[in-house]
Specification:
This is Tyrosine decarboxylase. It holds the Pfam family Pyridoxal_deC. By secondary structure, the protein is of the alpha/beta class. It is built from 14 helices and eleven strands. It has helices at 3-22, 53-64, 86-98, 109-125, 146-165, 184-192, 214-226, 249-258, 296-299, 314-321, 331-334, 354-388, 415-432, 459-479; strands spanning 139-143, 173-178, 199-202, 230-237, 262-266, 291-295, 307-311, 393-395, 403-408, 438-442, 445-451. The strands form two sheets. A seven-stranded mixed beta sheet has the order 1-7-6-5-4-2-3, with helices on both faces. Strands 8-9-11-10 form a four-stranded antiparallel beta sheet. Bound molecules: pyridoxal-5'-phosphate. Pyridoxal-5'-phosphate is lined by residues 80, 145-147, 182, 184, 237, 239-241, 266, 268-269, 295, 307.
């Protein structure tokens, strides 16, 4: 590591990235390359001799950027956002610069302590119950993704119940969530050895706006108890991936509690909105939860990856995930004076991710972050109004946060034609490269998703995307006559 070379390359790279952001709208937002495109452009093996930095930058421009989908483009409206910001970026840069591996407190005390402090700050911004703060039995930890978050709490819950009922009961354990729950729960169940038939994804319908019905949950739990199964884990979502449905946390949490189950709340996307007092009520009932997760890397200006997880009882995580090999033993850990985050996660090694979240919170402050969220929600409302003015389209589910679920209405009420039409519309819009949207299926209907949340998006970008949608719809409807 030569400091002067770092200065030279670092400055050049920052210039390259700043220019990228300045010209980001010139790229097709969805990469238009064909599968395997890069094989033809790069050599079969690594160079024997060093290449020049400029040569590498030229290759990035000519060969890599065409294969990039521009998540930071203001014309990006697909899936959910994955925010970048100046604060998040420089925090990430510092983390790469220090390049510590903070698995135990001793390996970089600041990494552990800053993470605890910053997650306490964020917990307070979200008005999480005090039990989730690090001063008591609970605390927060930064995981890479929401998938890792649900996996570690599922493992904690599984081991907790097995300590009570005996480890031979694994195949009787049952997990509950709505069928709108993100697929990460299913993956976690696969990893945790939960019997595939015991992962109950309960149907949620339009009658509850795709939220999980507490009555349906209670009935299912009763049936499972009758046949000798052991309900142990309930996962609710605030802001589902398909349509931002919000499960009724309070009633669900009470059911979980009365059955001795672990209650996890996944607010990966919508958690960010809950720092605004007017949206905080969507989290009401979180006091019943054992764990709560939100992705700061989605809609909170913190560069990927930064998934914040809080638990009320950190010892449950530690009991499930700790190992204590000789080569990691040290005085502070042995004396139980410190948190060793290696015992709260799957991998041993961990990056100094709290730096970027700390920078975001310090350099923007709560009020700016609230304005940021409100502005996106305002833009989503604007898009919703545009749809309402065109009778060829409909908004399919009530818009709650910054996602609008909509579709082009089928001609002659022919639903299967409607599905095909909307699929074609999605492809037509995305192939222009001027906007990127994604889709889902709700109650058998193919639905288009317009998620506002990229930091650079302004009203003019929403209007431009709507114009492309309208034009492509006009052509498709003309063709289908
Ligand atoms: N939960 C919800 C509600 C999501 O929307 C997503 C992803 O969009 C996830 C979980 C999974 O996120 P991750 O990629 O952080 O695992």
């Amino acid at each position: 590591m030569d400091a002067e070379q770092l200065r030279e390359y670092g400055h050049k790279m920052v210039d390259f990235i700043a220019d990228y952001y300045k010209t980001i709208e010139n790229f097709p937002v969805l990469s238009q390359v064909e599968p395997g495109y890069l094989r033809n452009l790069l050599p079969d093996s690594a160079p024997n001799q060093p290449d020049s930095f400029q040569h590498v930058l030229d290759d990035i421009q000519a060969k890599i950027l065409p294969g990039v989908t521009h998540w930071q483009s203001p014309n990006y409206f697909a899936y959910y956002p994955s925010n970048s910001s100046v604060a998040g970026f420089v925090g990430e840069m510092l983390s790469a610069g220090l390049n510590i591996v903070g698995f135990s407190w001793i390996t970089s005390p600041a990494a552990t302590e800053l993470e605890m402090i910053v997650l306490d700050w964020l917990a307070k911004m979200l008005k999480l119950p005090e039990d989730f703060l690090s001063a008591g039995q609970g605390g927060g930890v930064i995981q890479g993704t929401a998938s890792e978050a649900v996996l570690v709490v599922l493992l904690a819950a599984r081991d907790k119940v097995l300590r009570r009922v005996g480890k031979d009961a694994l195949e009787k354990l049952v997990v509950y969530a709505s069928d709108q729950m993100h697929s990460s729960l299913q993956k976690a169940c696969q990893i945790a050895g939960i019997h595939p038939e015991n992962c109950r994804l309960l149907k949620a319908t339009s009658s509850t706006n795709y939220a999980l019905s507490p009555e349906f949950l209670s009935e299912t739990i009763s049936q499972d108890l009758t046949i000798g199964l052991i309900p142990f884990f309930l996962c609710a979502t605030v802001g589902t991936t398909s349509s931002t449905a919000v499960d009724p946390l309070l009633s669900l949490g009470k059911i979980a509690k009365s059955n001795g189950m672990w209650f996890h709340v996944d607010a990966a996307y919508a958690g960010s909105a809950c720092v605004c007092p007017e949206f905080r009520h969507y989290m009401d009932g979180v006091e019943e939860a054992d764990s709560f997760n939100m992705n700061a890397h989605k809609w909170f200006l913190t560069n990927f990856d930064c998934s914040a997880l809080w638990v009320k009882d950190r010892s449950a995580l530690v009991q499930a995930l700790s190992t204590n090999p000789e080569y990691l033993k040290n005085k502070a850990s042995q004396a139980n004076m410190v948190v060793d985050y290696k015992d709260w996660q799957v991998p041993l090694g961990r990056r100094f991710r709290s730096l970027k979240l700390w920078m975001v919170l310090r350099l923007y402050g709560l009020e700016n972050l609230q304005c940021y969220i409100r502005n996106h929600i305002k833009l989503a409302k604007h898009f919703e109004n545009l749809i309402a003015q065109d009778p060829r389209f409909e908004v399919v589910t009530p818009r709650i946060f910054s996602l609008v679920c909509f579709r082009l209405l089928p001609v002659r009420n022919d639903e299967s034609h409607g599905n095909k039409l909307n699929h074609q519309l999605l492809d037509a819009v995305n192939s222009t490269g001027s906007a990127f949207i994604s889709h889902t299926v709700l109650s058998g209907k193919y639905i288009l998703r317009f998620a506002v949340g990229a930091p650079l998006t302004e009203e003019k970008h929403v209007n431009a995307a709507w114009k492309v949608l309208q034009d492509k719809a006009t052509s498709l409807l003309a063709e289908s006559l």
